[in-house]
Write a structure and sequence with these properties.
single chain; 170 residues; alpha+beta; endopeptidase fold (from Nostoc punctiforme); 2 domains
Length: 170
């Protein structure tokens, strides 16, 4: 009986277009996709949590580097590029991270902007191609680019419009 009901349902056409209604497998796929999307959204919105000891220490190590020169490929302690600063600061705090921004982006758990905490990694541009360490209050510490020094900046000044993602690794 169920088979004849299913077969007759699939043969019903839509009045305005004359096309067939989606079959049960197509409807199930759409429902499953919707449920997965809802679950993925909830995973991104991690609840706010106090910074771990590792994250707090990494922030302090990064802040101690403010004023040191940017150097492409620099991984400290005399000079840094953006991912080198993150790797070095977290390493000093006891958490090993990969060397490149791209590989660092695959670490930890995604966090929404609203739930970003001190010590979270903030990634920018496509790739992503830049990273800083979130300080809270709309600020981050980072090694910006050639000719500049490790500095603390406000995200709202430029970076807020270019965030590619935030990850909690500490």
């Amino acid at each position: 009986m169920a088979n004849s009901t299913t077969l007759s349902y699939e043969k019903i056409t839509h009045r305005s277009t004359g096309s067939r209604r989606p079959g049960p497998f197509a409807r199930a796929a759409v429902l499953l996709s919707a449920l997965l999307a809802i679950g993925a959204t909830e995973a991104v919105a991690a609840p706010p949590a106090p910074a771990s000891t590792v994250a707090r220490n990494a922030v302090e190590h990064a802040l101690d580097q403010v004023g040191k020169p940017y150097r492409y490929g620099g991984d400290g302690p005399g000079s840094f590029d953006c991912s080198g600063l993150v790797k070095w600061a977290y390493g000093k705090a006891g958490r090993s991270l990969p060397r490149t921004t791209y590989d660092q982006y695959r670490q930890g758990a995604p966090v929404s902007r609203a739930n970003a905490a001190r010590g979270d990694l903030v990634f920018f541009y496509s790739g992503p191609s830049h990273v800083g360490i979130h300080l809270g209050d709309g600020r981050m510490v980072h090694a910006p680019s050639s000719g500049k020094k490790v500095q603390v900046v406000r995200l709202a000044d430029h970076y807020d419009d270019h965030i590619a993602g935030i990850r909690r690794v500490g």
